[in-house]
Amino acid sequence: MTPASTFAGQKLALFGLGGSGLATVHALKAGGADVIAWDDSPESAERARGLGITVSDLREADWSGVAALVLSPGVPLTHPEPHWTVGLAKAAGIPIIGDIEIFCRERAAIAPDAPFVAITGTNGKSTTTALIAHVLAQAGYDVQMGGNIGTAILSLQPPSRERIHVVELSTFQIDLTPSLKPGVGILLNLTPDHLDRHGTMEAYAAIKERVVASADLAILGVDDAHCAAIAGRRSGPMIRVHVAGHGDAAADLVASEGRVLEGDTVLADLDGIGSLRGAHNWQNGAVATAAARAFGVEGDALAAALKSFPGLAHRMEQVGRRGRVLFVNDSKATNADSTEKALTAFHDVHWIVGGKAKEGGIAPLSALFDRVAHAYLIGASSKAFAETLEGRVPYTFCETLDVATGRAAEAAAASDAPEPVVLLSPACASYDQFRNFEIRGDRFRELVTALG
């Protein structure tokens, strides 16, 4: 835990008692703060009471002595409309912050030179975060990994000059972190996402830009127009990363055919690393290479660490083989842009797709339909996706994941392809049939295991 000593003796209001909210309350109390917490979910509020947390409806609280509102990143700050606690905080004239801000203030107070790597982007940020943490840990560093990747930042050990924090940040978290200033700030890419929470693409990009604008060293993917423009505005130390074939960008490092190049020098070779398959992982690997070199990790040490990276669950996770058939769990692909990465990485794909569709559906993937041997449609999007696939890709209505997995496995086994792939890459949210993408991916893994 990182005790939040910078708020010692102060009274704070906190809304949102999920995992990060509970960790924040414990950190604030350990640092000597007085916390009044609330959640609209009666179950969450009751669970917090059982942990000894003071839970009181913030609508009835006296806000005159409150130093700040600590807001869960899942709660709307601006769009589609501010949460009711935001209105109360603004009326009281107090700042609205998140747990990342508390960590940043603690770092500034007790160890301002503590290594802090912050990673954001639309796609690939979890894999890149885990990869950087893995490489640095393999090199012998004390590494703490958390943030949006799953472990609340205040659950980690405190900042120290001898400890590297590698932290994934969402726009929601960045928006609640006014004093963000990482030692290494990383921005991978930008495509439209979460616009219901940010209003416009310009607003979304501006929030992401803060990670690199404030960093001592910025590492930027420059393959899309928004990131290229952000790189053009950066005046401090910067490493630009470009993936060959993804636009024509000026860059310091280039990822091409699985190799990370600085001029004609090969810094890393990703070819044959199953957990880093596909052009999108070339970018992840190149960015991780740049970050590792900033900490003195390169050459054989870097190569060995990259090769031993196990990958992340639900992100192009190779969950098994049955004869020639490879089964890949890409349940984290909740939009077409994410699924594009998986389809680009494989041929002869038996594609399990569907769920609660995002805007645009799978139409943006049409250029990759020739990689799909057959599509197996599940969930609420089935009818709309069938219309997109009609006459271009053979498809079967399966409704549920278990039916789709069984049928895809049978058809792939009967294929003449050298390595047919059964790919769960839904391009959709899971909420029509599963509570989250993790549960959906876990179910797919169970189904594959049951095949033998």
TrEMBL record:
<feature type="domain" description="Mur ligase C-terminal">
    <location>
        <begin position="314"/>
        <end position="428"/>
    </location>
</feature>
<dbReference type="GO" id="GO:0005737">
    <property type="term" value="C:cytoplasm"/>
</dbReference>
<dbReference type="GO" id="GO:0005524">
    <property type="term" value="F:ATP binding"/>
</dbReference>
<keyword id="KW-0133">Cell shape</keyword>
<keyword id="KW-0547">Nucleotide-binding</keyword>
<dbReference type="Pfam" id="PF08245">
    <property type="entry name" value="Mur_ligase_M"/>
</dbReference>
<dbReference type="Pfam" id="PF02875">
    <property type="entry name" value="Mur_ligase_C"/>
</dbReference>
<dbReference type="InterPro" id="IPR036291">
    <property type="entry name" value="NAD(P)-bd_dom_sf"/>
</dbReference>
<comment type="pathway">
    <text>Cell wall biogenesis; peptidoglycan biosynthesis.</text>
</comment>
<comment type="similarity">
    <text>Belongs to the MurCDEF family.</text>
</comment>
<keyword id="KW-0961">Cell wall biogenesis/degradation</keyword>
<dbReference type="InterPro" id="IPR013221">
    <property type="entry name" value="Mur_ligase_cen"/>
</dbReference>
<comment type="function">
    <text>Cell wall formation. Catalyzes the addition of glutamate to the nucleotide precursor UDP-N-acetylmuramoyl-L-alanine (UMA).</text>
</comment>
<keyword id="KW-0067">ATP-binding</keyword>
<keyword id="KW-0573">Peptidoglycan synthesis</keyword>
<keyword id="KW-0963">Cytoplasm</keyword>
<feature type="domain" description="Mur ligase central">
    <location>
        <begin position="119"/>
        <end position="292"/>
    </location>
</feature>
<dbReference type="InterPro" id="IPR004101">
    <property type="entry name" value="Mur_ligase_C"/>
</dbReference>
<dbReference type="GO" id="GO:0071555">
    <property type="term" value="P:cell wall organization"/>
</dbReference>
<dbReference type="InterPro" id="IPR036565">
    <property type="entry name" value="Mur-like_cat_sf"/>
</dbReference>
<dbReference type="InterPro" id="IPR005762">
    <property type="entry name" value="MurD"/>
</dbReference>
<dbReference type="GO" id="GO:0009252">
    <property type="term" value="P:peptidoglycan biosynthetic process"/>
</dbReference>
<dbReference type="GO" id="GO:0008360">
    <property type="term" value="P:regulation of cell shape"/>
</dbReference>
<keyword id="KW-0436">Ligase</keyword>
<dbReference type="GO" id="GO:0051301">
    <property type="term" value="P:cell division"/>
</dbReference>
<keyword id="KW-0131">Cell cycle</keyword>
<protein>
    <recommendedName>
        <fullName>UDP-N-acetylmuramoylalanine--D-glutamate ligase</fullName>
        <ecNumber>6.3.2.9</ecNumber>
    </recommendedName>
</protein>
<dbReference type="GO" id="GO:0008764">
    <property type="term" value="F:UDP-N-acetylmuramoylalanine-D-glutamate ligase activity"/>
</dbReference>
<dbReference type="InterPro" id="IPR036615">
    <property type="entry name" value="Mur_ligase_C_dom_sf"/>
</dbReference>
<dbReference type="GO" id="GO:0004326">
    <property type="term" value="F:tetrahydrofolylpolyglutamate synthase activity"/>
</dbReference>
<dbReference type="InterPro" id="IPR018109">
    <property type="entry name" value="Folylpolyglutamate_synth_CS"/>
</dbReference>
<keyword id="KW-0132">Cell division</keyword>
<feature type="binding site">
    <location>
        <begin position="121"/>
        <end position="127"/>
    </location>
    <ligand>
        <name>ATP</name>
    </ligand>
</feature>
